[in-house]
UniProtKB/TrEMBL annotation:
The active site is at K192. Pfam families: DegT_DnrJ_EryC1 (PF01041). It comes from Flavivirga rizhaonensis. This is DegT/DnrJ/EryC1/StrS family aminotransferase. Keywords: Aminotransferase, Pyridoxal phosphate, Transferase.
Length: 385
């Protein structure tokens, strides 16, 4: 059996090695390392793939979130609602811009932001909602967009973990994650479903004026060299990373299908064990999607372990050479940097429980049946004592 890895980037690279190497060599030979032809080519291909008018590449996913908020003109003190159960980057950029983060609880079944909690958190100072499409599937965007419209709020999709996923509306219409809100961000960190070989990110919007503003922000506020029209930052996707991403983009749907197939095999193995709660695809999409359902693209395959010592399971798996992750072990509202006396523990019942129960298993495009069988049988052996 091959060594089990949390993410097997080398195996994926070997499958597209010639194309990637050629693309990188092309950039090296033309020496257009910043904003070169490959960046613009990737941008256009990404826009077409997502069905969005504007994709603006940038240096990383955290920058993408920050730039999206800067582009909207949010002011210090404006409140921004987001999920408590996610990676810190989401709230980090809110605090960096001197906005006021308002953390709310998530759903127990799909880990995404809870709609009723969002409604409860809205005040006259609220200006935006940041739904995080956690672990590979969209938050309830239909409800979120309705709330935003009713309260005149911006919606900023954090799509770092769900590139290639689609959101299915109640009427069956589907839109790609990142093309629904007023603006969206994504990360091309190497372990993402679409990852580069360094760091990278992008911002998406269908708003022409907002896109123009963002294009200035990512390049020091310049539209014409040495003319600084807006306050900007230095956040540009380099051409080598764009070359890698453009080589991988045509494979993204197949990569996501490989993740989905691995997830199905995991879930099948665990179906008879009530202590193991497998990931749920939200919105009962199986009833309204066709066989090519892409509602969940499984950036992570995250279990909930009930009435079992989760941390002991982590140790057991590591002892058996099975990597795993706990995403996330501490709620954001309990992180030292983001504690606030406004928060009440009773408002975070789900998150406070999830941090004790969740465990993410190896998930990538190169998982094979032998590895999945070994991982699942090892977990079942631990559960059975």
């Amino acid at each position: 059996m091959k060594k089990i890895q949390m993410v097997d980037l080398k195996g994926q690279y070997n499958g597209i090695k010639d194309v990637v190497n050629h693309s990188i060599q092309e950039v090296i030979e033309n020496t257009s390392f910043i904003n070169g032809p490959k960046v613009h080519e990737f941008q256009k291909n990404l826009e077409q793939y997502l069905g969005v008018k504007h994709a603006i590449p940038c240096a990383n996913g955290t920058d993408a979130l920050q730039i999206a908020m800067m582009g909207l003109g949010l002011k210090p003190g404006d409140e921004v609602i987001t999920a408590d159960f996610t990676f810190a980057a989401t709230v980090e950029v809110i605090a960096l811009l001197q906005l006021t983060p308002v953390l709310v609880d998530v759903n127990e079944d799909d880990f995404n932001i809870n709609i009723e909690a969002v409604k409860k958190a809205i005040t006259p100072r609220t200006k935006a909602i940041v739904p995080v499409h956690l672990f590979g599937q969209c938050a309830n965007m239909e409800a979120i967009m309705q709330i935003a419209k009713a309260h005149n709020l911006f919606v900023i999709e954090d799509n770092a973990q769900a590139i290639g996923a689609s959101y299915t509306y109640k009427n069956g219409n589907k839109i790609k994650a990142g093309a629904i809100g007023h603006v969206a961000s994504t990360s091309f960190f190497p372990s993402k479903n679409l990852g580069c070989y360094g760091d990278g990110g992008a911002i998406f919007t269908n708003d022409d004026n907002l896109a123009h503003t963002i294009r200035g922000i990512v390049n020091h506020g310049m539209y014409e060299r040495y003319h600084h029209d807006v306050v900007g930052v230095n956040s540009r996707l380099d051409s080598i990373q764009a070359a890698v991403l453009d080589a991988k983009l045509p494979h993204l749907d197949n990569y996501n299908k490989a993740r989905q197939n691995a997830a199905k095999k995991y879930s099948k193995a665990f179906e008879d064990y009530e202590n193991i709660i497998v990931p749920k695809i939200s919105n009962d999409c199986s009833e309204i999607c066709d066989t090519s359902c892409d509602c969940h693209v499984f950036h992570q395959y995250t279990l909930k372990i009930k009435d079992i010592d989760r941390d002991a399971l982590v140790k057991y798996l590591n002892e058996h050479n099975i990597p795993c992750g706990v995403y996330y072990p501490i709620p954001l509202h309990n992180q030292k940097a983001y504690r606030d006396e406004r928060y009440n523990e009773d408002d975070f019942k789900v998150t406070n429980q999830l941090v004790k129960e969740v465990i993410s298993l190896p998930m990538h495009t190169e998982l094979d049946d032998e590895q999945i069988a070994y991982i699942t049988s090892t977990i079942i052996k631990f559960i059975n004592g």
